[in-house]
TrEMBL record:
It comes from Paracoccus tegillarcae. It comes from the Bacteria. Belongs to the kynureninase family. The gene is kynU. GO terms for biological process: anthranilate metabolic process; L-kynurenine catabolic process; L-tryptophan catabolic process to kynurenine; NAD+ biosynthetic process; quinolinate biosynthetic process. This is Kynureninase.
Length: 395
């Protein structure tokens, strides 16, 4: 059994704050401060450029990738870290498209994170492909024989709705297409099994439920059957078979190493490595069970005490990830008032109040306080203060 009391103690949670926004940015692991300081003092300061060899910086993206692999149902040597999620989306989709050169269609849905759609739109224009976007419930029927790549985010960033990864991947394969999955709201939140569902490519970020810190590097996974054939358009020197030979022509490295691009962010990856220590001893089945317990308690509490809010997430827990959203016409102001009271969620346009549940540090007392505070704000109308209507750049 997972000791969630231990994992909660591993995070710095500010006094008086109930944090339900780990689906956007996880809190800081207590150990990260010392780990990064040690790296800067003992490695960067003392070893200087030698650290790429003596401190293992060059191998860090694969070593940390192996730690991520356990959380997403992947195998050793199949995940590599580096760059941003948008870059990894571009790499995965372009590689999948190249493996189906006789097909032009990239299929996604309107619940996908806009950045993924921007990347796919730009790629489609560059390689003479077509991006088709349908409603989430229409995806299965839109998988046709002209499809090259199915590109989906497993858990919808606004509603928390969860796609059936196994069923949609199988349907894509039956049509002769490949499946690329974005796990931004899945990794560290739900029970992902990439090898079990036979996906082709997957990408994800590490600053949400994995708690790697703002701007923490993204990851990419390639199924072993594609690892030596995948050829992403974006080719960088760290993905070269012999980067320090400085050849003028690109030769891809073997396996997942070819998915490296630029110089890895060593300091950020050190903080991420500290965050991954918290995951040692965490059973994903326990994580999922606790997630459902927390989200169910929150939905029940809000529906009983906040009649002005409308549930915007699937009611059945099997159909959603580890986040829940409600609708209110003045959702932004309501959320700002809630944050002012020390309960932190976030807002998504046009009217979505969004709450994430991270079992590593959230417990039932967080749910109770959040429900009570939200109900009081709605009841007394304190959310309608003019200062809560002033939009900040980041919502």
């Amino acid at each position: 059994m997972t000791d969630f009391t231990r994992t909660r103690a591993a995070f710095h949670l500010p006094e008086g704050v109930t944090y339900l926004d780990g689906n956007s940015l996880g809190p800081m692991p207590v150990a990260a401060t010392a780990r990064v300081a040690d790296m800067m003092r003992d490695e960067w300061a003392e070893q200087l450029i030698r650290g790429w060899n003596s401190a293992g910086w060059y191998a860090q993206p694969r070593r940390v990738g192996d730690r991520i692999a356990r959380l997403i149902g992947a195998g050793e040597g199949q995940v590599v870290m580096g760059d941003t999620l948008s870059i990894k989306v571009f790499q995965a989709v372009s590689a999948a498209r190249a493996l189906r050169p006789d097909r032009r269609v990239i299929l996604s849905d309107s619940g996908n994170f806009p950045s993924d759609l921007y990347v796919a739109e730009g790629l489609a224009g560059a390689v003479d492909a077509e991006l088709r976007v349908v409603r989430p419930e229409e995806v299965a029927d839109a998988i046709t024989d002209d499809l090259a790549v199915l590109m989906l985010t497993e858990v919808d960033y606004r509603t928390g709705r969860r796609h059936d990864m196994a069923a949609l991947t199988a349907r894509a394969h039956q049509a002769g297409a490949l499946a690329v999955w974005d796990l931004a709201h899945s990794a560290g939140a739900v029970d992902v099994d990439l090898l079990g569902v036979d996906a082709d490519f997957a990408v994800g970020c590490t600053y949400k439920y994995i708690n790697g810190g703002p701007g923490a590097p993204a990851f990419i996974w390639t199924h072993p059957r594609h690892s030596d054939a995948a050829a992403p358009i974006l080719q960088g020197w760290m993905g070269h078979a012999a980067p320090f030979a400085f050849d003028l022509d690109y030769r891809p490295a073997a396996g997942i190493e070819r998915m490296r691009v630029g110089t890895p962010p060593v300091i950020a990856m050190t903080a991420l490595d500290a965050a991954l220590d918290v995951w040692d001893g965490v059973e994903l089945a326990d994580l999922r069970a606790r997630s459902i317990e927390l989200s169910e308690a929150f939905i029940t509490g809000v529906q009983e005490n906040c009649p002005d809010l409308v549930l915007n997430s699937p009611r059945h827990p099997a159909q959603r990830g580890s986040q829940v959203s409600f609708l209110h016409p003045q959702g932004y102001a309501v959320m700002q008032a809630l944050i002012a009271e020390g309960v932190i969620g976030d807002f998504r346009a046009p009217d979505v109040l969004r709450f994430g549940f991270a079992p590593l540090y959230n417990d039932v007392s967080d749910i109770e306080r959040a429900v009570d505070t939200l109900a009081r704000i709605l009841r007394d109308g304190s959310w309608d203060d003019p200062r809560f209507h002033q939009r900040a750049k980041v919502t």
